[in-house]
């Protein structure tokens, strides 16, 4: 039995209440404040944004399938739902086990199964089930549970490995550039899975034979396969079936060597370890821990499931955290992008800012050479803004913010330059060969909230790389 589309079907408000109640009921298992966890869960479940066709959506129902908390939340929700249902019905299965949304059960012949399933599907308006019934065999997770030839005599069910029809068995190719331990791990891990999932040695050997053939197709040497498989034995099945909690290795106090594996990495590693013991360096520290980092692959360069983030994506993450009202009324909320007019001077006769105003709709970082697009309409009279000053003489830049108008802010900068005040902008434009006419300004961002404006200022200082010595900013505080 399987729940149809469990993750997107979970009602958010009901699920949050269930999780909170379960934490209160089993308080001895909860290590943190249940109210805090509930608030964090609500924040995550009700603010799941995603993008499709250049439109941003908000998920109104269910939980995100890729979120780390989703399986746990779904598990708690289903546990409570089934417990309530089973307590409300007189007909119950002889045996029932569940893994999140997959359910295996044994039903007594003298009971009405169709009635049970109908009641189950009508118990909750959003959670529906689909079933596969058989008198001889059913698939559950990665095993097939079936009646063996001696079932009548023993009353015991048997298991074998279940492989989905669309499984392409794309094991890591042996000619890939990876450590030999990775290939050994693949073989040992899969062989141990076959031991656990097959209740008879005959079925195990049958699966192992197919596995060996698939490895050969991925260019694994036959000698390497059989040598590695010596580490796995069906006779140790009882041991493999035990749930073993591995003690975490004490690695925090070991010196770490992190690198993208260079050519002959294993030889270099062996040399370092040999020299470590040769000079008895264990007197001073533990043996180094070697950590290999992932190198850039063709996939990294060529494949991207999402368009490359723009400056608007970055500043939206920083600035856009508004509460959405009545968010239970619809399934999706759509945020569309507005048309933007080009920045323009105010052209007032007495406006000194106009001579410094750059009306270009694009701006660029002279440090990183990246170009960005202005997403708002600005003039000399704009307030609550982030502005970018560029020195046309040496191309150094400064990011600032003000709640006043751009005209007032530039007036103060001009005044400090003319009077030679000991401020960073003033000192720069009073350097030899520099003039006040070299000062050009663009308004690049805006926000009515002062706290958010400060965050955006720090964001653009980092994004445009305007900290000294590459720029004119001294601090992001």
From TrEMBL:
Q: Where is the GIY-YIG domain?
A: 382-473
> Taking every annotated instance into account, which residue ranges of this chain make up the domain Reverse transcriptase?
1-188
**PROSITE patterns per record:** GIY_YIG, RT_POL
Recorded source organism is: Amphimedon queenslandica (Sponge)
Return the protein name.
Answer: GIY-YIG domain-containing protein
């Amino acid at each position: 039995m399987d729940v149809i589309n469990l993750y997107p079907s979970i009602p958010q408000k009901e699920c949050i209440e269930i999780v909170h109640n379960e934490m209160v009921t089993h308080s001895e298992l909860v290590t943190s404040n249940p109210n805090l966890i509930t608030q964090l869960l609500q924040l995550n479940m009700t603010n799941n944004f995603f993008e499709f066709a250049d439109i941003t959506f908000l998920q109104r129902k269910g939980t995100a399938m890729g979120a780390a908390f989703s399986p746990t939340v779904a598990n708690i929700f289903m546990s409570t739902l089934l417990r309530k249902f089973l307590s409300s019905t007189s007909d119950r299965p002889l045996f029932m086990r569940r893994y999140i949304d997959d359910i295996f059960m044994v039903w007594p012949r003298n009971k009405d199964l169709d009635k049970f399933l109908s009641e189950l599907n009508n118990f909750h308006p959003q959670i529906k089930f689909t079933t596969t019934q058989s008198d001889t065999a059913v698939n559950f997770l990665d095993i097939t549970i079936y009646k063996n030839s001696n079932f009548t005599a023993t009353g015991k069910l048997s298991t074998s490995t279940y492989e989905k029809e669309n499984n392409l068995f794309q094991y890591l190719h042996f000619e890939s550039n990876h450590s030999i331990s990775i290939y050994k791990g693949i073989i040992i891990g899969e062989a141990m899975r076959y031991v656990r999932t097959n209740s008879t040695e005959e079925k195990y050997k049958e699966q192992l034979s197919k596995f060996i053939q698939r490895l050969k197709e991925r260019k694994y040497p036959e000698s390497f396969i059989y040598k590695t498989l010596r580490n796995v034995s069906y006779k140790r099945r009882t041991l493999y079936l035990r749930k073993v909690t591995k003690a975490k290795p004490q690695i925090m106090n070991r010196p770490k060597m992190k690198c993208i594996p260079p050519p002959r990495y294993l030889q270099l590693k062996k040399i370092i370890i040999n020299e470590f013991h040769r000079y008895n360096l264990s007197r001073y520290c533990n043996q180094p821990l070697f950590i290999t980092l992932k190198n850039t692959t063709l996939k990294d360069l060529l494949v991207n499931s999402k368009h490359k983030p723009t400056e608007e994506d970055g500043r939206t993450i920083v600035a856009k955290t508004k509460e959405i009202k009545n968010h239970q009324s619809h399934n999706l909320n759509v945020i569309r992008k507005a048309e933007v007019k080009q920045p323009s001077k105010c052209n007032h006769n007495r406006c000194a800012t106009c001579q410094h105003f750059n009306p270009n709709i694009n701006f660029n970082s002279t440090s990183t050479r990246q170009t960005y697009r202005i997403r708002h309409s600005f003039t000399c009279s704009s307030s609550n803004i982030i502005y970018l000053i560029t020195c046309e003489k040496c191309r150094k830049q400064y990011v600032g913010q003000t709640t006043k108008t751009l005209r007032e802010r530039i007036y103060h900068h001009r005044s400090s330059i003319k009077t030679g005040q000991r401020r960073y902008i003033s000192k720069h434009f009073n350097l030899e060969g520099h003039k006040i006419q070299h000062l050009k300004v663009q308004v690049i961002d805006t926000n009515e909230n002062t706290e958010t404006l400060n965050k955006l200022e720090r964001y653009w200082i980092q994004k445009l790389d305007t900290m000294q010595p590459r720029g004119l900013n001294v601090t992001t505080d």
